[in-house]
């Protein structure tokens, strides 16, 4: 009998967990975990999904699209209005790499720690 796996947490390496958690908290509206600190911070979603941010000494941000320092992780976020979401995230501290492999279908941004992530139109 095969067991079913349920994803409960995703953790990103970074230099400043509380700062990166604040970026994603503002972007997603998720709640900051009450035990978050300078070493490990987290956000929780109502269904139990946890997004963690752990401090790594000598953290090296990804170099996207080149791979001299690999992506490490890649997140996708569904949005209703890709242009509005992009503008909001850039204001919060995201960056938009020059290389956009398919800007008509999705947008690649990087968070303040350098992790690439995509904005994709919501498919309802």
TrEMBL record:
Superkingdom classification of source: Bacteria
Span of domain VOC: 6-122
One Pfam family cited in the UniProt record for this chain: Glyoxalase_6
InterPro entries: Glyas_Bleomycin-R_OHBP_Dase (IPR029068), Glyoxalase_6 (IPR041581), VOC_core (IPR037523)
Name of protein: VOC family protein
């Amino acid at each position: 009998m095969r067991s079913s796996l349920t994803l409960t947490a995703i953790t990103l390496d970074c230099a400043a967990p509380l700062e990166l958690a604040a970026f994603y908290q503002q972007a997603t509206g998720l709640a900051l975990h009450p035990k978050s600190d300078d070493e490990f911070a987290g956000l929780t979603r109502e269904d139990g999904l946890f997004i963690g941010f752990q401090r790594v000494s000598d953290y090296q941000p990804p170099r996207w699209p080149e791979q001299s320092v690999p992506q490490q992780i890649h997140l996708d976020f569904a949005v209703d209005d890709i242009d509005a979401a992009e503008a909001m995230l850039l204001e919060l501290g995201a960056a938009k790499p020059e290389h956009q492999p398919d800007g008509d279908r999705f947008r690649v941004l990087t968070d303040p720690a350098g992790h690439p992530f995509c904005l994709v139109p919501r498919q309802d």
